[in-house]
Every structure is written in C-alpha cells, then in structure tokens.
Write a structure and sequence with these properties.
It holds the Pfam family DUF808. InterPro entries: YedI (IPR008526). It comes from Achromobacter veterisilvae. Keywords: Membrane, Transmembrane, Transmembrane helix. This protein is mainly alpha-helical. It has a domain of about 210 residues. It is built from eleven helices and no strands.
Length: about 300
C-alpha cells in the first residue's frame, strides 16, 4: 500500500514536471519578441564603459534584473490568484507597449534629427576622457538606467508568461514563472556578456600566430557592429509580431478578420502562418503608431495645462 502511494506520488510529480515543461516552452516562445530587443538594448547600454569594467557592469545589471523579477513574479501570482480578470487587460497593455516601443524606436531613428547615435558615442567618449567626470557615478548611472529599462522588459516577459499559464493551477504557475524568470535573466545577461566581449575575443584571436585564427579574429571584430544592428532589427520586428498577435487575440473581430485573410492566401499551413504573422505585425505597427500619437498629444496638453 505504501509502495503504491509512493509510485502514485512519483507519477503526479512526473505529470506536473511534464506539464511545466510544455507550458514553459509555450511561455518562452511567446516572450521571444521581447528577448531580441532586450539583448540589443542591454548590450548597447553597457557600451561606453571601460573595457575592464564591462563584465562587472553586466553582472550588476543582471543582479538588478533578478531583484526586478523577485518583485514581479509574486505580484503576477497575486493577480492570478485574486484578480484573474486582470490578466487579459494587462496582457493587452503589454502588447500595446511592445508595439508603442517599436514605433518609438523607428520614429527616433528616422524622424529625430537632434539625437544621433554618433552624438551618444561622442558624449560617452568625452566622459571617459574627461578627468573631472566621476567614473564611479557615471557607471552607477548606466547601471540604474539599465535596471529601470530591464524592469519594463521583465514586466512584459512575466505578464506574457502569465497569460500562457493562466488556465493552470497555482503550483504550475509558480514553477513556470520561476523557471522563465531565472532562465531568461541568466540567458539574456549571459549572452549580453558574450556580445560586449565579442570584439575582445576577435582582437585576441587576431593576434594569434595561426593565420586561420588571426583571420577569424579579424572577421569577428568586423562582424560585431553588424551583429548589434541585426539584433536591433530582429528585436524591433519581433516586437511588432508578438505585440500585434497579443492585441489581435484580445480583439475577437480583428483576430477573425486576420484568420480569414490568412486562409484566403492559401499555399498551405506555413504560408498561412506567415501571412497571419505579417498581418499581426502590421496591426502592431498601426496600434503602436496610435499609442505614440496619443502619448505625444497627451504630453502637449499637459504642457499647455
């Protein structure tokens, strides 16, 4: 009897772990839109820091990210337990913010003329060379800014993950959100550390006596800036795809129209899925532009008031 109870308990644990594994994969897939931008943004935030301090700064931001998630995960679980009706509106807000952030990035890049990337690099170089600048304060300021940005991105990840496990019991929700929080933080900042030191790796290899290694090192150094740009582009596109999909799934009539339009394209499941993704992204761009316009109008009204 005791043996059968033990095996029943073991079977229950295995079932929970299997469910958690499946739900974690779903949640990770749904949060992929945030990760590309998270990687590029955090890698860019660390630039301008002295080379010997880059990893220390990444580690400090990673610790701040863990603290953010220690706040956000319990808050999300409390919402799920006591106000489950709020999950969908929060999810919609997260999707709208993703789209808004994507449009804001595009607007800043193509419409803004007074705040160029070259200006940012020049300011950082000047700060590093100016002996009057307190580099400890400079570094702390960058860490605080990166942790604040991480809080917003982490909130998006946790809310999207919560939406993926909204129908599960409390135990499974705790396990999935905890795994996502730890895995995403470790994964993102581990990759950020690798990205910011990629040029150092290339430089190290370029000085090797072996010609193939030296050639590889030079290619790594020349490819590092393009990698950053590619991450930024992919991250922005993913923000529209994921954010748009979240919004359209929450607006039944729009979702139905997109599904009918994708089905009308024909060409099999892959083509239809691609058409649906592109339509969701287009909706995300429009939604982000509307939110950006509304935010700009609100700022003007507040200034006048």
């Amino acid at each position: 009897m005791a043996g059968s109870s033990f095996f029943a308990l073991f079977d229950d644990i295995a079932s929970i772990l299997d469910d958690v594994s499946v739900m974690t994969k779903v949640a990770a897939k749904k949060t992929s839109g945030v990760l590309g931008d998270d990687l590029a943004l955090n890698a860019q935030q660390v630039t301008g820091v002295p080379v010997n301090r880059e990893l220390a700064v990444v580690w400090a931001v990673a610790k701040g990210s863990f603290v953010n998630k220690l706040i956000l995960v319990p808050a999300a679980l409390l919402i799920s337990a006591f106000a489950p009706w709020a999950i969908t509106p929060l999810l919609m807000l997260g999707g709208a913010f993703l789209c808004y952030e994507g449009v804001e990035k595009l607007a800043h890049k193509y419409l803004s003329h007074g705040d160029s990337p070259e200006g940012h690099h020049a300011a950082r170089a000047e700060a590093l060379q100016d002996q009057a600048v307190d580099m400890v304060a400079f570094e702390r300021g960058k860490i605080k800014g990166a942790v604040r940005t991480d809080f917003i991105l982490s909130a998006e990840i946790i809310v999207i993950s919560l939406g993926a496990v909204a129908g599960a019991d409390f135990t499974r929700q705790v396990m999935v959100l905890s795994i996502i929080a730890v895995a995403m933080t470790a994964g993102v900042y581990g990759l950020v550390a690798g990205i910011v030191k990629l040029d150092d790796l290339g430089l190290y290899l370029s000085r090797k006596p072996s010609r193939p290694l030296a050639w590889l090192g030079r290619r790594v150094v020349s490819a590092a800036p393009y990698l950053m740009k590619a991450l930024s582009v992919v991250g922005t596109a993913a923000m529209f795809m994921v954010g748009g999909a979240i919004l359209t799934h929450g607006i039944a009539p729009v979702h139905a129209v997109i599904e009918r339009a994708a089905a009308a394209v024909g060409g099999g499941g892959v083509v239809q899925a691609l058409a649906s993704t592109l339509l969701n992204a287009l909706f995300g761009i429009v939604a982000g532009a509307v939110v950006l316009g509304a935010a700009g109008l609100a700022k003007r009204l507040l200034r006048k008031g």
